[in-house]
């Protein structure tokens, strides 16, 4: 397995450049090259899921001197999420992206984004964390603007500026830690930090990382870029941004650095709980009044990430489990919702809810998938969103955060109201005259959506079969950083 680990980064990274060369001869091969890479990475992630943890020393140089990649339960969980979502999104993108020109450039940027995310998840040192974070970020800036319309260029520019600020803040935090620890290896740095460094410097670095990764994950009040970027991007990229980017570049880094590397402290727990609660409330209230389907979903991304932050911020076994469970579930149902919105726009030419209606009759596969995802995000049993929200709420009441628990229930109710509106105005009611001749989307787009719809049902019901091996093992890494240190260093 050790020798296979770099393939998670090298396969998409290498294919991104090979694709540009091959498409000069074979013009329409880029989509098939991308699909083959994505399928291979999913097979690889499933093949080694639950494998014993280890590190890979790049070039044979052992850490802390050399570059290392780490395969532990937390990275396994995130790699699995990325692999599943990218397969569904790629299937959807094959027919969807035919309405755009320069598809070879789209798929190369798409592969670079996957390589960057996988690199962030697997890397064992801060320098390469920053490098891979920038690879994924720069690719996503370009993909948001891929349609080159005025709205898309404006959204991409805002995303670029705030993303640059975020990266600069993160780089400053890394530089400060390196100045006092003398190492960039995460496990080695953790050892030095726990031996004792300046508390003031540590808290200042916490603040820098909170702002930097808070921007990447679009937590309130660092969320200004997201409501423009997500709706403006092509539907497959909207699904990637909401389903994966804000998690791999944001929430995952917060969990890995704050819990495993630096060590969680009470004041940081409190800040995470406050930011999580604020994101839940602000996001859902901004979403309720939206009539642009994709913008509504973008605001719900802010709200749902609040659930994850609250669960992780509790720093209790049940709270962290609920946060990671909701991280997985949100990746599935929010990606599905963005794909459904893209399917509606692909067929009807609009994403304004007031201009839709009666689509369930003409688009039964898309409509059913959309209904399943809407019920999942609203926390309706037995769908997956219900179970993760329930775990977080129980954890809050167990920890005696009664007010925050009540807020969480209220936000879930408001989410349900929001998606009742979506269902009413898009799927049911009378079909407008101009939409009388529309048809269901192509089969590959349906396949991508159906895969995620099945997961919305299965992830909740089948938890006993995969939960202990996948989610609970990842939780244990955050609860006891020594589990990470034992195998991240020789």
Question: Can you give a write-up of this model?
Answer:
With 490 residues, this protein is mostly helical. The protein has one domain (7-488). It is built from 20 helices and two strands. It has a two-stranded antiparallel ribbon.
Cα shape: globular
Return the string of H and E elements.
HHEEHHHHHHHHHHHHHHHHHH
The total of helices stands at 20
Class from secondary-structure proportions: mainly alpha
Beta-sheet strand percentage? under 5%
Q: Can you tell me the residue ranges where pLDDT is under 50 for at least 5 consecutive residues?
A: none
Main β-sheet, spatial strand arrangement: 1-2
Question: How many distinct domains?
Answer: 1
Mean pLDDT: 90
Q: What are the defining features of this structure?
A:
mainly alpha, two-stranded antiparallel ribbon, 490 residues, globular, single chain, 2 strands
């Amino acid at each position: 397995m050790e020798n296979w680990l770099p393939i998670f980064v090298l396969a998409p990274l290498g294919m991104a450049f090979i694709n540009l060369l091959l498409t000069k001869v074979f013009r329409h091969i880029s989509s098939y090259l991308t699909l083959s890479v994505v399928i291979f990475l999913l097979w690889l992630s499933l093949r080694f899921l639950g494998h014993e943890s280890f590190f890979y020393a790049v070039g044979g140089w052992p850490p802390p001197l050399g570059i290392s990649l780490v395969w532990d339960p937390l990275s396994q969980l995130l790699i699995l999420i990325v692999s599943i979502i990218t397969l569904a999104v790629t299937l959807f993108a094959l027919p969807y992206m035919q309405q755009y020109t320069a598809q070879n450039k789209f798929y190369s940027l798409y592969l670079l984004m996957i390589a960057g995310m996988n690199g962030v998840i697997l890397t064992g040192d801060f320098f390469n964390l920053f490098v891979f974070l920038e690879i994924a970020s720069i690719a996503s800036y370009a993909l948001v603007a891929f349609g080159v319309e005025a709205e898309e260029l404006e959204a991409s520019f805002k995303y670029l500026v705030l993303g640059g600020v975020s990266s600069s803040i993160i780089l400053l935090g890394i530089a400060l830690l390196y100045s006092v620890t003398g190492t960039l290896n995460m496990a080695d740095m953790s050892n030095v930090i726990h031996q004792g460094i300046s508390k003031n410097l540590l808290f200042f670095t916490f603040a820098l990382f909170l702002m930097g990764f808070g921007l990447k994950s679009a937590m309130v009040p660092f969320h200004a870029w997201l409501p423009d970027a997500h709706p403006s991007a092509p539907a497959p990229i909207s699904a990637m941004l909401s389903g994966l980017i804000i998690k791999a570049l944001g929430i995952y880094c917060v969990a890995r650095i704050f819990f495993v590397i630096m060590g969680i402290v009470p004041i940081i727990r409190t800040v995470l709980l406050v930011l999580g609660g604020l994101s839940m409330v602000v996001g859902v209230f901004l979403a309720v009044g939206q009539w642009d389907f994709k913008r509504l979903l973008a605001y719900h991304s802010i709200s749902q990430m609040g659930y994850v932050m609250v669960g992780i911020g509790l720093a209790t076994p049940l709270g962290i489990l609920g946060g990671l469970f909701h991280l997985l579930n949100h990746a599935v149902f929010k990606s599905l919702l963005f794909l459904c919105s893209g399917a509606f726009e692909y067929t009807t030419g609009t994403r304004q809810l007031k201009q839709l209606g009666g689509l369930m009759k003409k688009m039964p596969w898309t409509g059913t998938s959309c209904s399943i995802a809407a019920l999942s995000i609203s926390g309706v049993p037995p769908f997956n969103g219900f179970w993760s929200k329930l775990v977080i709420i129980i954890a809050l009441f167990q920890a005696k955060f009664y007010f925050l628990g009540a807020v969480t229930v209220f936000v879930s109710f408001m989410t349900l109201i929001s998606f009742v509106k979506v269902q009413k105005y898009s799927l049911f009611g009378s079909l407008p005259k101009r939409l009388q001749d529309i048809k269901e989307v192509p089969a590959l787009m349906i396949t991508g959506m159906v895969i995620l719809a099945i997961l919305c049902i299965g992830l909740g019901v089948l938890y006993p079969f995969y939960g202990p091996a996948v989610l609970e093992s990842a939780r244990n890494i955050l609860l006891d950083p020594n589990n990470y240190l034992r195998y991240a260093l020789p």
